[in-house]
Amino acid sequence: MGLRRRRIVRSIIIGVFSVLLAFLLLAPPAWLFISSIADLKDLLRIPLRWIPENPSFSRYAGILFGQGPESEFRKIMANSLYVATFVTVICVALGVLAAYAFSRLRFPGKDRVLFILLFSYMLPPIAVIIPLYQMFSNLKMLDTKEALILVYSAILVPFVIWMMRTYFDTIPRDLEDAAKIDGCTHLQTLFRVILPLSLPGIVATLLFAFLMSWEEFFIALILTSTPQAKTIPVAIAEFSGRHSIDFGMMATGGVLASLPPVFIALFFQKYIIGGLLSGAVKG
């Protein structure tokens, strides 16, 4: 009887903490959505009103279908999608090839190069932003999406190499030996054997690269100045002015900015979980 009671108490405690954790995780996005459809007077009211009196989707309509100043946000969303997509493709393409080389090939200084790559990824953006600004200014590439693609790719390729190298290390070498016996070269082995087995890890890495380039703020703030190249984080920050803050538009922009990563995560959920679990255990 005592054992059964302990199990019941444990189940109740786990349930309570699960509900509390779910509330803590879901409350911020729920409030973000409520703020996007509430009047400004509801957002500034004391005590706070959790359910708006007159909910309205006019901000979403203005951004998605309007022709006023809010319509610039559509162009900025397209900029973010363009930059994040190209950065992801470049980083995964280069990172997978380099990670396979670091995982399987032997060459002098391999470990040193890996640590140099890790060090370059750990550099804070503020330490390199002035040289980057001067370089792109001399190249007449300020306020362009291509400048952001180059910088983000240079920053994220080391991250992709480290993640994919760890994943490749979990794949048995016997599979490659069998492929080489059949006459495959290193590249043929990579594309015909390793990549199909590494699909979960590639998808997980792809999502991380996409999210990092999608949400980056500081570099985009310095290198862009017009809607032709600005990205979503910069646009959302500009809803806060010197004398006023448009909380509703900031929340609306935040909701719209969160939709693509959420959809990607839901669509590739199986591969993401498999990639994280497989890459975390070496054997």
From TrEMBL:
The keyword Transmembrane helix applies. CDD domains: TM_PBP2. Keywords: Cell membrane, Membrane, Sugar transport, Transmembrane, Transmembrane helix, Transport. One of its GO terms (cellular component) is plasma membrane. SUPFAM superfamilies: MetI-like (SSF161098). Part of the ABC transporter complex MalEFGK involved in maltose/maltodextrin import. Probably responsible for the translocation of the substrate across the membrane. It holds the Pfam family BPD_transp_1. The keyword Transmembrane applies. GO terms for biological process: transmembrane transport. Gene3D superfamilies: MetI-like. The chain crosses the membrane at residues 12-34, 81-102, 114-136, 148-168, 189-211. Belongs to the binding-protein-dependent transport system permease family. MalFG subfamily. This is Maltose/maltodextrin transport system permease protein MalG. It is found in: Cell membrane. Residues 77-268 form the ABC transmembrane type-1 domain. Its main location: membrane. It is a multi-pass membrane protein.
